[in-house]
Every structure is written in structure tokens, then in C-alpha cells.
Design goal:
heterodimer; A: Rossmann fold; globular; disordered N terminus; B: five-stranded mixed beta sheet; 10 helices; 14 strands; 20% strand; binds adenosine-5'-triphosphate; binds magnesium ion
Chain lengths: 128, 371
């Protein structure tokens, strides 16, 4: 597996400003970043990626296809090389629980994480 | 209420005089098409039980009922909260009683001996009609309240996203993602960042409150060490206390007190109370935190030497958005949601939170939780 593509981070977030911010934060920390703005676009981009991303940051509430809808299609257990981090601003326990059941393995409350904390989460996962 | 088995309006007559019952039954029997079915109870306690079972659509209650009056029965049943109307039966010409009955929530009154089938039927039908209209209004208000909770929740979430954007972009500058800034620039950006953090906190508080108000909080209880939890919180607030030149003393329990609680929620409750103790105290004061326990519960006390809370303000402390004016309240920020939420969370645990206060000398909060 090529070093570089193994480091790809996929951001799925519908808010333009936030998507842009996460893109900048992670890219300036040396990671390859691909972005999508809803679940449907995310599935399409995934199917055309040569190497699967190492991490998917997945927003839950999105238009067209939301995070839960994405996870149902994506089938996380079939992609052990990728870690799905639920990235939400809704501390709605039910949705987060559902995401975990569908294979997400972490949860980040967007309003709480600072840029450094985001990078720390990424390093943490990469070093696993 | 009732199943659709019988379309008749079920009336319960509560009257200890059998002759009166027979007369009234006679009048009922003359109502055309017999829309009512009548049941009779001749004593207070039996009537009380029957009303509790809620099998009837309407109660016809004699004012004079042994030692206890029909009014007692009605009062005990909180007519405002019940969908079934009460109608009081009075003797002739007792105007005061009639007025009193209406004040207490009776839908109407009938004077014994002065009504025939037509008046009886009309009075009962109207009472039910009015109660139904009232129920619809109540239902409407419940809906309105729900949509208000929902509105707060949606609006807060909408505010959270752009504020999170601000946090990320300013955070990138402050955390050095985009190169150096001058100290002056950093100061200003830091201030903007802090303002935005305050906004995020208010949004989080509103969301928490909307969640408890909507009854959506589920406690995730686990076994925790109370001493450790308090030690953590106090450690985290050490900076705040130092900044205000205050000290905080913690008398940890002699043996390890463990409790079965939702740690995240209880932590936030204690964080707010310990933060309040500092916020509403001046420099140079000390806050004492201690834990006591017995077999079934433990009690955390947080005692400050602050401005205190005046006696006539005590009732307001746990209300939503209530901020009590005191010499420090304009200097320290707050939304007045902390203790409202705290009480809800502690109540959900089956515990209690109360305080005593000496204006000018300080306040002590007591948080009791079952183990
Ligand atoms: N230890 C205390 N001493 C004096 N007054 C207090 C103390 N704790 C609370 N109060 C009063 O009770 C009010 C309600 O407290 P509460 O914690 O709910 O709100 P707050 O601290 O104003 O805001 P926040 O929602 O940010 O916590 C406060 O505004 C303050 O006037
Ligand atoms: Mg407070």
C-alpha cells in the first residue's frame, strides 16, 4: 500500500465553512484530504478512490443523504482499514448510538474540538 | 375515558339520601331518547374510589354529604386537572354556596327540587361540551409548549454550526496553523475566541435545558468514586479560583465513597455549583467542599463566603433564566440556567439540592444523591 494514500482523510460535512476549516487544518498538518458535502457524494467519491481513506470524518445531519443513511450503504465492517469518526453538533444520544451500531468507532462534538484536538485525534488513529 | 361499548353518557350521582336518588332517577328516566346512564353512590369514600377509576363522564354531587361536603370531594379531585365535569346539587336559594361551587371549579349547579328532565339534560350536555372545549384548549397549549421546546432546540443547533466555524478559524490562528501573529493581534483574536466560547456555552445550556424540558434525558448511571470526581472538578477549576485570588478546600471522605450516578451529568451539576461559589464571592475568600455519607445516600456540601442570597429571592434560584441581582452579578457572566438544570438532573436521580444563605456572609449548597 502506498504510504501517502494510506494517510488520506475524508471529510464529509455539509457546512461549507466548517468543511473548509477542517480541510485547511488537516492539510496544513500534512495529510491528504478529500471532501464531500453529503452522504451521496461521499459514496460516489469513495467508489472512485484508488485506495480507501484511513479516516472518514462523518457529519450526521446532511441534506440528500445523511450520516446514518451513508453508513447503511457504506457497510463499515467491510472496510476495517478505515476508521469512521462521527462528527456531529447534535448531542443526540440516539443518533450517535445508531452510528456506533453501524460501525462508527468514535464520536467528536464539533463545537468542542479545537484544531489541535482534531489533529490529535487523527494522530491517535494513525498510530493505532 | 370510556370504551365505545356504550354510547351513553355515564353519570355518577353522589348523594347520601336515597329518596333524592329516586327522585333524580325518575327525572332522568323522562329525558327523551335516554342519552344518560345513571349510577348512584351514597357515601363519600365509595364515591372517591369510583371517581378515581374514571369510568364516568360526569359527576353530579350533592353538596350535603354526611360530615364531608360535596365540595370536599370536588376539591380533593382537583377539578382543574380533570377532563370530567362536576355539577353540584344545592338546596333552594343558597346563592353563596352556588358561587362558591363555581369558584371551586364546578361546571354548573342544579337546585334540588327545581329542575325537570329538560333542564337536567341541557345542563349536563352543556357541561360536557364546555369541558371538551376546555380540553381542546389544554391540548393546544401542550402542543404549543412542545413546539416551543422544539423551536429552541432547532434554533440552538442552527446557531451552533456558525459558532463552531468561528471557533475553528480563530483556533487555527491562535494555535499557530497559519503562522505568527503579533501579541496585540493575538490578544484581540483571543478575546473574539472567548466571546465565541461564551456563545457556544449558552447554546449548549439552552440545548441541555430543552432536552430536560422535553423529557429526553436518559441517565447513564455507572459506579464512580465521589471523591475522585470532586477532586477532578476542583483541579480543573483551580485556575479560575487562583485568578480570583480565592482558595478552595476539599475535605475528601475518609473512606472511598462510591455512587451509582450519571457521571457526566452530575459532574456538570457540581461544576456549576462550585463555579457559582467562586463567581458570587469576592477576592480572598475560601470555598469549602465536603462529602458526608450514610448507608443509602451521600451529601456534598459547597460552602462559600460570598454575597449570599436574600431570603425573598430564595424561590427564584432554581428557576429558568433567573439571575438574582447582587454586587457581583453584573461582573460575572451567566444565563441563569445552571441551577434550573442542576435541580432537574438531581431530581431525576431521586436526590435533592437545597441551600442555606446568609446575605453578606455566604451560601452553602447541599446536594444529596442516593448511592
Ligand atoms: N453561591 C451563590 N451565592 C450567591 N448567589 C448565588 C450562588 N449560586 C447561585 N446564585 C444566584 O442564583 C442565580 C442562578 O444560578 P445559576 O447557576 O442557575 O445561574 P448563573 O450562574 O447566573 O448562570 P449559568 O447558567 O451560567 O450557571 C445566580 O444568577 C445567582 O444570582
Ligand atoms: Mg451558574
Amino acid at each position: 500500500m502506498a504510504e501517502k494514500s494510506a494517510q488520506t482523510i475524508f471529510i464529509v460535512e455539509d457546512d461549507q465553512d466548517l468543511n473548509g476549516a477542517y480541510h485547511m487544518i488537516l492539510e496544513s498538518s500534512g495529510y491528504d484530504v478529500t471532501v464531500a458535502f453529503n452522504g451521496k457524494e461521499a459514496l460516489e467519491k469513495l467508489s472512485s478512490m484508488v485506495e480507501p481513506p484511513r479516516i472518514i470524518f462523518l457529519d450526521l445531519r446532511m441534506p440528500v443523504l445523511d450520516g446514518i443513511g451513508f453508513l447503511k450503504e457504506y457497510n463499515a465492517p467491510a472496510h476495517p482499514e478505515t476508521t469512521v469518526v462521527v462528527f456531529s453538533n447534535y448531542d443526540a444520544q440516539k443518533e450517535v448510538d445508531e452510528a456506533y451500531e453501524l460501525g462508527a468507532s468514535r464520536y467528536v462534538l464539533k463545537a468542542r474540538a479545537t484544531p489541535n484536538e482534531l489533529v490529535r485525534i487523527v494522530r491517535d488513529i494513525m498510530s493505532d | 375515558m370510556m370504551k365505545a361499548a356504550s354510547r351513553k353518557i355515564r353519570v355518577l350521582l353522589v348523594d347520601d339520601d336515597e329518596d333524592d336518588y329516586l327522585i333524580i332517577r325518575q327525572i332522568f328516566s323522562k329525558i327523551p331518547e335516554a342519552p344518560f346512564s345513571l349510577e348512584w353512590s351514597d357515601d363519600y369514600d365509595k364515591a372517591w374510589r369510583l371517581i378515581g377509576q374514571r369510568k364516568h363522564h360526569l359527576y353530579l354531587i350533592d353538596y350535603r354529604l354526611g360530615e364531608k361536603s360535596g365540595m370536599d370531594l370536588m376539591r380533593g379531585m382537583l377539578p382543574q386537572a380533570r377532563p370530567e365535569p362536576f355539577i353540584i346539587l344545592t338546596g333552594a336559594g343558597d346563592r353563596d354556596l352556588e358561587r362558591q361551587a363555581m369558584r371551586e371549579g364546578a361546571s354548573d349547579y342544579l337546585v334540588k327540587g327545581s329542575f325537570g328532565p329538560e333542564l337536567l339534560s341541557r345542563t349536563l350536555q352543556y357541561a360536557i361540551g364546555r369541558k371538551n372545549a376546555e380540553q381542546q384548549r389544554v391540548q393546544y397549549l401542550i402542543e404549543l409548549n412542545r413546539s416551543k421546546d422544539e423551536f429552541i432546540s432547532i434554533a440552538s443547533h442552527q446557531l451552533r454550526t456558525p459558532a463552531t466555524g468561528v471557533k475553528q478559524y480563530l483556533g487555527m490562528v491562535l494555535e499557530g496553523f497559519v503562522g505568527e501573529v503579533t501579541d496585540r493581534q493575538r490578544d484581540i483574536i483571543q478575546k473574539a475566541y472567548q466571546s465565541n466560547e461564551r456563545q457556544l456555552r449558552i447554546v449548549a445550556d439552552l440545548l441541555k435545558v430543552a432536552q430536560v424540558d422535553a423529557g429526553k434525558i436518559r441517565l447513564h448511571k455507572q459506579k464512580v468514586s465521589v471523591g475522585e470526581m470532586l477532586g477532578d472538578i476542583i483541579g480543573e477549576q483551580a485556575d479560575t479560583y487562583r485568578m480570583r485570588q480565592q482558595s478552595i478546600r476539599f475535605t475528601s471522605p475518609s473512606k472511598a465513597t462510591t455512587a451509582h450516578i450519571d457521571v457526566d451529568a452530575v459532574r456538570m451539576v457540581l461544576e456549576n455549583i462550585i463555579d457559582n461559589a467562586s463567581k458570587y464571592s469576592s477576592e480572598g475568600t475560601t470555598v469549602n467542599v465536603a462529602v458526608k455519607e450514610d448507608d443509602h445516600s451521600f451529601e456534598i456540601t459547597v460552602a462559600d463566603q460570598g454575597v449570599g442570597i436574600a431570603d425573598d429571592e430564595h424561590a427564584k434560584v432554581f428557576e429558568k433564566f433567573s439571575r438574582i441581582e447582587n454586587p457581583l452579578s453584573t461582573k460575572v457572566g451567566g444565563t441563569g440556567l445552571g441551577l434550573y438544570w442542576a435541580k432537574k438532573i438531581v431530581d431525576l436521580h431521586g436526590g435533592s439540592v437545597r441551600f442555606t444563605s446568609e446575605p453578606g456572609d455566604g451560601t452553602t449548597f447541599y446536594i444529596t444523591l442516593p448511592k
